Amino acid sequence: MKQLTVIALALSFFACKQTKKQEVVQEELAVEENVEKVSNDWQVLFDGSSFDGWHGYLSDEVSNVWKLEDGAMVFYPPKGRNGESYNIVTDKEYTNFVLSLEWKVNEGSNSGIFWGVYEDAKYGQPYETGPEIQVLDNIAHPDAKNGTTHQAGALYDMIAPSKDVVKPVGEWNTCVITIDHDTNAGSVVLNGEKIVEFPVHGEAWDAMVAKSKFADWEGFGNYTTGKIGLQDHGDIVAYRNIKVKEL
User: Fold this and answer.
1) Does the predicted model carry a pTM greater than 0.70?
2) pLDDT digits (tens, 9 = 90+) for 218-246
3) DSSP labels, 41-103
């Protein structure tokens, strides 16, 4: 009888061990499936090897002043440009999304990241319609002295970053921008810290615009759906690892 009890206990222990092992395997599979799903939610906008998915604003192609270097797109302002601009925008339009990218500036450089860009000949620049998240050398560029709403990570001329978390010139900054019209919420996370939050439409948005330099601009911020853009501000700037997740 004692021997049968020992055997029964052993079988019970083995069965329990097998059940736990199966549960662990199922959990691991669930995690893998979830990771794969999250990964598949992201669409690569720039993989470092080509400008596929981008074109010059009001142009059919990306100008050769944008170069591919070490997995990044780098803008080199041309000399004697005669008034031309070389902003670039995505081929596709977006409404609700999370945009993730890295940017790096040279000493004294200025650039910006736009969304909601309406590409039309009556608007000569993407900033005429698209709000901008500032990309800047906060130390050497004079615009940083024009108030904190002009500093890196700011919703340009409207919402200042809560703190300065920018890395030194020549280092890569990781920027994650969320625009969600369904929840009327936008935010900027720079180098792992949320530094800006703002509404993206409605009375609160209109009030912000009314207090900014864009108050009398006909098309500014009017387009819920639009293109994502990167700015030619006349300075060297680099971007890499650009991806978007539509919400």
Assistant:
1) yes
2) 999 999 999 999 999 999 999 999 999 99
3) HEEEEE-SS--TTEEETTSSS--TTEEEETTEEEE-PPSS-TT----EEEEEEESSEEEEEEE
